[in-house]
């Protein structure tokens, strides 16, 4: 297996498929998953001649179950460590959910200053801020995220079954047939990681204000969001992000859930390819 060691000694697992001289696309996964969540996209873009890279966030998947650094700054710095080690240039960075926050911070703090990023995509992403505050009264109350923490601490295995079986993929909606393999694969990815990383990651994805990150991103940025996202409500995320991005484009999908990259991969992959080629 392939690993990059960060400055603070964390081993970050990564996949790097395709011709090394092809245009790179780097994928950033959501909480509490791993790079395996991008299988449908990586195979698709590999078949279209791209070099595809995805890594497991610290504490997730096959990366080190380190005690510290479960915050957006470290997530972005770890991604940059992979980019530097592989010497990726003119790259497209695509992030889902928490991975979208990681992409926003990476591009603003590392990718653009180093001249290594060409485009960005935020899919069902958490920016600018999920938590309700005085400055963000439309956000979700802290009790929602405290509930996540309590459920995780009490019975992580059951919590990681209930989320994909219900709101994540919209399987709790009338007329939507649950896909058992999808549910089990989500559970498998989640249980590979560290309970501590997942617990502290809730604060990272819910309380990190990324308003300034979004304002700083000047590369073309595509924002994609499902209109029936029960995890990251579109009004709290995409509709605010697009107003902050200097060079952003928004596309929304009626009825699509948070995990639309998996259950509607054919639609999303075509839109991603069109944006990358544009």
UniProtKB/TrEMBL annotation:
The keyword Oxidoreductase applies. Residues 24-260 form the AB hydrolase-1 domain. The keyword S-adenosyl-L-methionine does not apply. SUPFAM superfamilies: alpha/beta-Hydrolases. It comes from the Bacteria. GO terms for molecular function: peroxidase activity. Pfam families: Abhydrolase_1. Keywords: Oxidoreductase, Peroxidase. Belongs to the AB hydrolase superfamily. Bacterial non-heme haloperoxidase / perhydrolase family. This is Chloroperoxidase. The lineage of its organism: Bacteria, Pseudomonadati, Pseudomonadota, Alphaproteobacteria, Acetobacterales.
């Amino acid at each position: 297996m392939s690993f990059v060691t960060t400055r603070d000694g964390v081993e970050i697992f990564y996949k790097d498929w395709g011709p090394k001289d092809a245009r790179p696309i780097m994928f950033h996964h959501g909480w509490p998953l791993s790079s395996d969540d991008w299988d449908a996209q990586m195979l698709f873009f590999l078949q279209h001649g791209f070099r595809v890279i995805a890594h497991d966030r610290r504490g997730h998947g096959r990366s080190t179950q380190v005690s510290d650094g479960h915050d957006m700054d470290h997530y972005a710095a770890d991604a940059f460590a992979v980019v530097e080690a592989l010497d990726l240039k003119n790259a497209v960075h695509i992030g889902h959910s928490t991975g979208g926050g990681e992409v926003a911070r990476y591009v603003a703090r590392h990718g653009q200053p180093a001249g290594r990023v060409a485009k960005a995509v935020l899919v069902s992403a958490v920016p600018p801020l999920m938590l309700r505050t005085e400055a963000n009264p439309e956000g979700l109350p802290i009790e929602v995220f405290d509930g996540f923490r309590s459920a995780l601490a009490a019975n992580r295995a059951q919590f990681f079954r209930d989320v994909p079986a219900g709101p994540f993929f919209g399987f709790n909606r009338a007329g939507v047939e649950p896909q058992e393999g999808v549910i089990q694969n989500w559970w498998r990815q989640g249980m590979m990681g560290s309970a501590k990383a997942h617990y502290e990651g809730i604060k990272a994805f819910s309380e990190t204000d990324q308003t300034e990150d979004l304002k700083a991103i000047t590369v073309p940025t595509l924002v994609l969001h499902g209109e029936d996202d029960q995890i990251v409500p579109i009004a709290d995320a995409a509709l605010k992000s697009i107003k902050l991005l200097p060079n952003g484009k928004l596309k929304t999908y009626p009825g699509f859930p948070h995990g639309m990259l998996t259950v509607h991969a054919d639609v999303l992959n075509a839109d991603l390819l069109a944006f990358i080629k544009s």
